[in-house]
Amino acid sequence: MGGENEEGEMMLVQRISGIYERISKLGSLSPSEEVDGLFTELVHLCIPVVAIEVCELSPEVQAMRTKLIKLCGEAEGLLECHYSDLLASFDNPLDHLELFPYYNNYVKLSQLEYTLLARHAPAPARVAFVGSGPLPLSSIVLAARHVPASAQIDNYDVDAAANERARRLVRGDGGVPGGARLEFHTADVMDVTLALRGYDVVFLAALVGVEREEKARVVEHLARHMAPGAVLVARSAHGARAFLYPVVDPAEDLKGFEVLTVHHPADEVINSVIVARKPTHGGVHPPAPAVLRPCKRCGMVQGFHHLGHESII
């Protein structure tokens, strides 16, 4: 069985590499029939639960993967800009969010994140979302469906144009009808310090820090400046989905936080979700978090604790 699995992994990597070569030769990643077709093919390849450890792949494949993730991020940004402009053309943009082809994925991801968060923290009054982009669906869904209407969600993005697009969707006083208030700040989170102490929860978008070292610096900054007891919700990827988004290793990349939960979806929700808390004491001695991970040998999902002890989830 091991040989068959390795052969299957090699074939998968070869197919992904082929799509990367085709994408990298495109003159533009703006939405088009060709661009949409290639990325749809890529996503369909990566979504099935495949027991592949990207950290064990060759340096050449690792380099290709990093470049592919950056291309995915660029294409995702252009797609969001396109639909943000389209939605802004309506009198009530928030009434037409379903026009975005992946809106239901955001709804499901937001439901997953808030369900996991609610197991470990009370309803937040102040939330930060880092890396909100031109189409801040995560924050909009969070405001409309999950956090209290009295809450405030501060969105941070380094791109002023992205924030301007986002503001056009949430008009007036920034409130989502029946939901929380949204604010948009143009800033690199690495330059945000005192404000971070005011948040109960900080959401970290998957594409904030594509390179592992960059992600680690962001997490270290958050650990230094978030309030003790505040919760971090970080998006990651697992298995073949790690060719679409960066991986956050709970054991290595979240120093300064107690990891509470790691969840790897097996459906069309691509991102894994990690919930962690900044300790209220001086050191970090985390309880072993429940983890969902596909078993390499049998392909089934098994539960185990972060420190290696078996558990029932």
From TrEMBL:
It comes from the Eukaryota. GO terms for molecular function: nicotianamine synthase activity. InterPro entries: Nicotian_synth. It holds the Pfam family NAS. The keyword Transferase applies. GO terms for biological process: nicotianamine biosynthetic process. Keywords: S-adenosyl-L-methionine, Transferase. CDD domains: AdoMet_MTases. Its EC number is 2.5.1.43. It catalyses: 3 S-adenosyl-L-methionine = nicotianamine + 3 S-methyl-5'-thioadenosine + 3 H(+). It is an enzyme of class 2 (transferase). Synthesizes nicotianamine, a polyamine which serves as a sensor for the physiological iron status within the plant, and/or might be involved in the transport of iron. Belongs to the nicotianamine synthase (NAS)-like family. This is Nicotianamine synthase. It comes from Zingiber officinale.
